[in-house]
Amino acid sequence: MMGPETFDLFLAIAMIAVFALTIGAILLFRRGNDRKRAWLMLVAALVLLGNVLIWTLPGPGLPGSGTS
């Protein structure tokens, strides 16, 4: 099992990747010559962001979830 420091590192790397993919997609949209790759980069950023949200939201019965 990974420790909290490793988990925090994974989350930080994932969020940096989300920002990098989003900025790269915006730059590709501005150039206008490779829109398909730009859309794919945006979709990848959204999927990665969704994963980060899933990893950080508490589940039922866990501390901070409001249910017991």
What does this 3D model show about the protein?
By secondary structure, this protein is mainly alpha-helical. The chain has a domain at 18-49. 74% of the residues lie in helices and 0% in strands. It is built from two helices and no strands. Helix 1 (4-31) packs antiparallel against helix 2 (35-56). The protein starts with a helix and ends in a 12-residue tail after the last helix.
Short overview:
This protein is mostly helical.
Please specify the SSE layout and strand pairing.
Layout: H1 4-31, H2 35-56
Keywords:
68 residues, mainly alpha, 2 helices, elongated
Determine the number of helices (DSSP H or I, runs of at least 4 residues). Answer: 2
Structural class: mainly alpha
Low-confidence stretches: none
Strand content: under 5%
Order of helices and strands: HH
- Round the mean pLDDT to the nearest integer and report it: 89
Question: Percent of residues in helical segments?
Answer: over 70%
